[in-house]
Design goal:
The protein has six helices and 15 strands. It is of the alpha/beta class and 207 residues long. Bound molecules: 1-O-pyrophosphono-5-O-phosphono-alpha-D-ribofuranose and uracil (URA).
């Protein structure tokens, strides 16, 4: 299942982050701002528990989040979304998956993993701005599940039909939330129109 966050506030920011003229400072700020909106939606089904709070006037029945939240950025570009989600849920724990896409084969190569034990029984939110072929996201979910995670959601900024299909094929239980579902992948497996190389644009590097 992929859910598109088509709110005008998100789509407006998406127009600016896509623009090739947007520099790395503004790109980073926008990644943070967009992530916050998408995560707000992605967490709408998170488990809550009823609590009674005494206001200055009377008791109020309220609801608090009742699950350990573990954010898992896929290195490196996923780090560009970390600040946004932590502004929304400051008590979340953070795990890391180091993956890069081999430039020739386009297959994901894992080079790092470190997860808090709360991935077992908690809710894991995998963050990566680009879900292109889907190989990196599938590999990250595989790793999380091998380490005991059961409840996983994926948050990206831009994806495309090929990537969604791959994640749905391997992990039909994992929902995807995105600000854009673009047209297709080009011969270099870049999303079209996409926003280019997210890692390079976030961190001011280039090929
Ligand atoms: C990018 C992106 C995803 C991956 C998406 O990372 O951030 O992790 O490619 O492609 P896929 O869906 O086809 O696997 P990249 O490999 O460029 O590494 P980086 O984050 O270190 O720049
Ligand atoms: N990785 C990116 O950064 N951008 C794409 O379009 C595809 C993979």
């Amino acid at each position: 299942m992929a859910e598109l966050i088509d709110h005008p506030c998100v789509q407006h920011k998406l127009a600016i982050i896509r623009d090739a003229e947007t520099g790395h400072k503004r790109f980073r700020e926008l990644a943070t701002e967009i992530t916050k909106f998408i995560c707000y939606e992605a967490l709408k089904n998170v488990k809550t528990r009823e609590v009674v709070v005494r206001t200055p006037v009377a008791d109020a029945t309220c609801h608090k989040i009742d699950t350990d939240l573990v954010v898992v950025p896929i290195l490196r570009a996923g780090v560009g979304m970390l600040e946004g989600i932590l502004e929304l849920v400051p008590t979340a724990r953070v795990g890391f998956v180091g993956l890069y896409r081999d430039e020739k084969t386009k297959q994901p190569v894992t080079y790092y993993e470190r997860f808090p034990r709360q991935i077992e029984g908690g809710t894991c939110i995998v963050i990566d701005p680009m879900l292109a072929t889907g190989g990196s996201t599938v590999a990250a979910i595989d790793l999380l599940k091998e380490n005991g995670a059961g409840n996983i959601v994926v948050v990206c900024i831009v994806t495309c039909p090929e990537g969604i299909q791959l994640v749905e094929k391997h992990h039909p239980d994992v929902p995807i939330y995105a600000a854009a579902i673009d047209d297709y992948l080009n011969e270099n497996k870049y999303i079209v129109p996409g926003l280019g190389d997210a890692g390079d644009r976030l961190f001011g590097t280039s090929h």
